[in-house]
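Q: Now give one record:
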Amino acid sequence: MKTRFPWCGDDPLYVQYHDREWGIPVRDDRRLFELLTLEGAQAGLSWITILRKRENYRRAFHRFDARRIARFTQRDVRRLLSDSGIVRNRLKVASTVSNAKAFLKVQKEFGSFRRYIWQFVGGVPQLHCFRSMRDLPAAAPEAHAMSKDLRLRGFRFVGPTICYAFMQASGMVNDHLVSCYRHPSQRKTRA
């Protein structure tokens, strides 16, 4: 039996997310925008709630096509607020639209969002060796720097805790516990 990070429990959706996504480096701009949006939507809620609504988010936000989302009007926002498949919070929905506009500006300035966002870890995933959930930080200096810079660029719902969760989800940091089968040290001991 595989030892996993305790938060995923035995929910099949959570297990699949843990095993196939969490902590794996993401370098695709659209996927990075999706993860940043979903982490912001999760604020104040559980991640499993967002995972269960993920396909609805992909449908509602045109598979996270930032160009299309940036053209959303107030009418689109009102339509989304009646969509029970997503979190119907006016500030979160509106921030997705404004974040899409900020995202496009970053892409234009840096050539890609990936180039911009990965600079906060020097372009290389950080590997941590935490032994228990208690050891994990809620944020890190890199997440504080990312949050500050994103806010200056017009992004919303990007506080340090959200940014750190985004860094974990996108593989900018690998926070699998050393006992987890997904931690690189476990691959060496199984070989």
